[in-house]
Amino acid sequence: MNRREWMKLAALFTGAGSLPLLQACGQRHAMQPDAPLRIGYLPITDATPLLVAHSRKLFEAEGVVVEKPVLFRSWAQLVEAFISGQVNMVHVLSPMTVWARYGSQSPLKVLMWNHMAGSALTVQPGINSVAELGGKTVAIPFWYSIHNVVLQYLLRSNGLEVTENDAPGPRQVRLIVMAPSDMVAALAAKNIAGFIVAEPFNAVAENKGVGKVLRFTGDVWRDHACCVTVAHAHDVERRPEWVQRVTNALVKAQLWTLDHRVEAATLLSNAGEGKYTPHLPAVLGKVLAPPQADWQRYVDSGAIRHPDWKQSRIDFQPYPFASYTETMVELLKQTHIAGENLFLRDLDPARVAGELVDERFVRKAIESTQSQARFALPASFARQETLLA
């Protein structure tokens, strides 16, 4: 993401920047109160449930009219399309929803989690610890991202601080925002010491031999969400039955993916019928269905330090725990974020969890599919968050 893209996205999440887009969205709702499902996505594994549900015709099975999902190349393009109503359901970085809702008062609702884990800190082959990142540059996909939150948690735990200065000190790590598609090349050229991002870019760096996974984010924050499924508040309020049917399909897509990981990798790849992403089946397979030998190698290298968690490289569970949202808000307050971020200071984590997330639809979908045990969800639909560096 270049500076122009960053500024564009920042402008969208201000009252002045979002107002004309919100007005356009309102006009679309007035003209098409029963609009078909229009999905927007980025070509990353975070979009898996949306794309699987489309490919497997799970939306149609629920009586939902759906158009072909639209691929976007940047978060700025995706967010602009969503706010203006060109698409009405997207996956976005979970901290981004906090920025949108409380930074610009954009009326959106988090319906469910898209996935768990699915990200990693990848570094040059000669780097063997987080402490060795001192004095170096690391790329993140966005300031408001779980990647930034988890990375800075790791840095603080290793006595390092964050800077945006071009010449970081020995106990400083310079962070820059970069498009995921540019990260592997930047690592290969040694323009950066590492990057932290969603899959499959970590797997791409491994396959090309230009980087190695230093830590998996799911091995730092146990079973954390990364991207979440977001809908317009207008749809949630005025056509809840439609939202329920869409959510049912997405929960069934996650269940199918859990049982068909290899097939899902092909489905999402450039060899799949839908050609949803430009990635090779082998690369996506390394993420969705990695061999057991990979897991043991990561344990031996220290990329996985908590093998007792039995964390998959990417996993699927749709329920949005309130404790996760509350912890995310608390961590955002401790995280260096460029640009306008003063709104974070006064946010009450519990209030955010109650206002931003609407878990009614996904809970009903889980209960109707009797999938609570399959997703390993506690009977109380509550949990405690675990973060360990």
TrEMBL record:
Keywords for this protein: Cell inner membrane, Cell membrane, Membrane, Transport
PROSITE patterns, A to Z: PROKAR_LIPOPROTEIN
Primary localisation category: membrane
InterPro entries documented for this protein: NrtA/CpmA_ABC-bd_dom
One Pfam family recorded for the sequence: NMT1_2
GO CC aspect terms: endomembrane system
Localization, UniProt: Endomembrane system
SUPFAM superfamilies: Periplasmic binding protein-like II
Name assigned to this protein: NitT/TauT family transport system substrate-binding protein
Organism, as annotated: Brachymonas denitrificans DSM 15123
